[in-house]
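Usage

Read records sequentially. Each one opens with the input sequence:
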Amino acid sequence: MTPSARVQAAIEIVDEVIAAAKAGGAPADRLIANYFKARRYAGSKDRRAVRELVYGAIRACGPVPGSGRAAMLRLAEIDPAIAPLFDGEGHGPAQVREGEPVADGGIAPDWLVARLLASDIDHTEAAALLDRAPLDLRVNTLKAERAGLDLPEPGEPLAAPHGLRFDAGTQVEQWPAYRDGAIEVQDGGSQIVCLASGAEPGETVIDLCAGAGGKTLALAAQMENRGVLVASDTDRTRLSRLGPRAARAGVTIASTVLLDPGKELAALAEYAGKADRVLIDAPCSGTGTWRRNPEARWRLTEKRLDQLVQVQSQLMEIAKELVAPNGTITFVTCSLLDEEGAGQVERFLSADPGWRAEPLALPAGRERGEGTRLTPHHDGTDGFFVARLAQTR
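and closes with the structure output:
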C-alpha cells in the first residue's frame, strides 16, 4: 500500500468506528481486524501503519466526528506529514476542498468534559487519558517471582508488587513464560485494586462481575490457591474464557457461576451470608480506560451513564446479601467520574449506617472521598476508583 492508500484505508475504518459508536457496534480493534481479514494483500507494515492512523485520528477528535475523512483532516492538522497524502492519486484520498469540514479536537464531548471537571479531573489529567497505554504484566506468584523471573526483556518494575511494564505492542504471548502461565497481561492499576480487597488464603471470595477472569486469577494468586473463589458474571462468553486461563495459570480454587440478570442472588444462594470478601468490579463508563479504548468517549451518553450508576447501586445491594458478618465489599470501577466512584460509595454509606469504609494502604493512588483513585497522569496506570466497605460492629 502507498502512504496515501494507507490514509484512505484508515478513513474507511474510522467511518466504521463512528457508525459502531453510534449504534453500539463492535470496538475499533475488531473493526480493524475485520477490515484486513478481507484484504489479505496488506502486509504487516501496512496493517501497523493503518492502525496507527486510525487510533491517531480517534484520539485527535473530542466529540464524535462527522466522518472518517473529517477525523483524518483533524489529525493532519497535528501531523503535517499527512496533509500532502490527500492527493487524489491512485487509492489515496481525494484532494482537500476549500472549506471542507474538519472534526473538532478536544478531550471528549462537552457534557463529558464537564463531568470530568466536576470530578476534579483537570485538563492535564484528562489529556493523559488519551496517551497510548504501555503493556503491563502481573507475575503469577503461583508459578514464579518477579525478582527471579527470566524474560526476553527485563521490564520495568511497577508499584504493584508483582507488576512489570513493557512497551505497547510487546509480543509477550509468544514468550515461554506466558505460555506456561507464569505471567498474565494486567494493567498495574488493576493489580493494585485487587490488593485492596485484602483477600487472604483460606477465605471465601466472590468476584461478582468477573468477566473473563483477569482479577479472579490475581485473587487466586493472592489467596495462594487456598480457599473458595467464585467467579460470577452474566456474560456466558466472557466467563467461559476463565477455564483455560485458570488451567494455564495453575489456579485450582476458582469456580464459575453464570448469573441471570435480576436473579443473581438465586444463582449465588449457597454463598449468601458466607463470603469473607466480595469484589465488585462494576460495569461502568470506562473513562479510566480511554488510553486503550479511545472511541469509548463517543459511545457514552448521559442516559447510559445514569443506567450504569443504577446497576452499580444494585450490585452493591446484592453484595450486602452475600458477605459474612465480618466480611468486606470491595467496590471498583475503571472510571474517574465521581458518580461511579466516591459519590457511589457516599450514597451507599448514607443509605445504610451499618457500613463503614476501611482505610486502604495501597502502593499508588490518592484519596478520593472514602476510597482511593488512580489516574494515568498521577500513577501511570489506567484510571480506577476503589473502596473497601465493612459492616460496623
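Summary fields computed downstream for this record:
- The chain has 16 helices and 13 strands.
- The domain at 135-185 is CATH 3.30.70 (Alpha-Beta Plaits).
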